[in-house]
Amino acid sequence: MGRFKKILIIIRRSNGDVFLTEPLVRELKEKYNADIDVLINKDTRMVAKLNPFFNRIFTYDYGWKGLKKYFNEIKLFWKIFKRYDLAINLTTNDRSTRYAIFSAKKSISVVDNEKRKNWWKKLLLTHYYYNENKHIILQNLIPLQFLQSIPKTIEVNSYYNKEVFDNLTEKYSFLKDKYIIFHPSAQYEYKIYPLHLRNTLLNLLNTLDIPIIITGGKSSVDLNIATSIPKLKNVYNLIGETSLEEFIAISDNSSCYIGMDTLNMHIAASQNKKIFAIFGPTNHQIWSPWCNKLQTYAKTKELNQRYGNINIFQANMDCVYCGLAGCDDKHGKSECLDYINPSEIFLKVKKWIVA
User: Fold this and answer.
1) Nearest to 287 by CA among 111, 112, 71, 138
2) Pick from 114, 263, 323, 353: CA 20 to 30 A from residue 274's CA?
3) Is 288 left (phi over 0), alpha (psi -120 to 50) or beta?
4) CA 112/CA 91 separation, integer angstroms
5) Can you give the residue ranges of every domain in the chain?
């Protein structure tokens, strides 16, 4: 494939997807020392900004409508047209594939398994590969096979300015002590632990007499959860009070992460923290936290399992894990989350803290 001075990565999915490109991007930077740009969805921009290997960030906005969408797409297209030596597309949709083909001399892209839709992609791409049923990090690293650049070790890293935490401790004195993180929110409501179970778990954790930092962003989902957090002696509610970079700093200085299957879980895992992750309908064999120490993920179908520093809790139901966006697959309620016992989570946390 040759040497590359300019590389474009296209990853138009959610926050966690963008974050988990870090092993791929770091390997490309180390191998080629190239300028690496990224094309993402607008709502994932803050995640991309915290990856030090990304140079320019281009965004696609689903909010574009009518003529504005037409002109903005043309503008975006010309910004990247034939500007790169290599483009790697990690998203199967047609638009992302076209961006890869027309932005670079050589292009690599994932494609859907349905061959009837992909004939033109196979014809125009330099290399293509199928979307396999494997962990997302291993899936993202497949393009390296075409570059003869297989990393010896696979680790996920996160980054922040060390001064950020110093500033936080001046503002929040309780961050100077040993503390744990409880992250009750997720990007989508169908992934969120029900209110009554969440509050039961918080009341149990409160008995450990360790500061519990409640984290979350400023989305409507997060802010709605913020109003329902119980006022307990050891609970400090920071939902909506910190940036993503500040969360990374808080997480890096914490003892453990307890909470939902979301971006923040992957950040804590990248820092080798003890993880107690609550999964709903998500396929944990694809989206489980990556264990840097053991170089692995949740490989088995076992619903409640531990590997290295990672603990996963998922309901014992025939339909789990379905991979749907809620039981109706329309971002409705995920009933499986109702069957995860908060006492089981607490006992595992307590056993680890007391040990």
Assistant:
1) 138
2) 323
3) beta
4) 9
5) 6-146, 164-354
The predicted-structure confidence for 216-275, as pLDDT tens digits, reads as follows: 999 999 999 999 999 999 999 999 999 999 999 999 999 999 999 999 999 999 999 999
User: Assign residue 215 a region: left if phi > 0, alpha if psi is -120 to 50, beta otherwise?
Assistant: beta
Give CA torsion, residues 258, 171, 226, 275, to 10 deg: -10
> Cβ distance 110 to 136 under 8 Å?
no
Q: CA 192 to CA 220: how far, in whole Å?
A: 13
Report the alpha-carbon distance of residue 54 to residue 48 in Å, rounded.
7
Confidence category of residue 320, pLDDT binned at 50, 70, 90: confident
Task: Give per-residue pLDDT as tens, 40-95.
Answer: 999 999 999 999 999 999 999 999 998 989 999 999 999 999 999 999 999 999 99
State the virtual CA torsion across 20, 92, 296, 192 in degrees, nearest 10: 70
Please answer whether residues 260 and 287 qualify as being in contact, where contact means their C-beta atoms are separated by less than 8 angstroms.
no
Domains 6-146 and 164-354 are alike in CATH topology: yes
**% of the chain beyond a pLDDT of 70:** 99
CATH 3.40.50.2300 fits 164-354, yes or no: no
Question: Burial of 283 by CB count in 10 Å (0-12 exposed, 13-18 middle, 19+ buried)?
Answer: middle
Structure letter (DSSP) for residue 336 = G
Q: In what order do the strands lie in the sheet with 54-60?
A: 54-60, 35-41, 6-11, 84-89, 104-111, 127-130
CATH class, domain 6-146, is: alpha beta
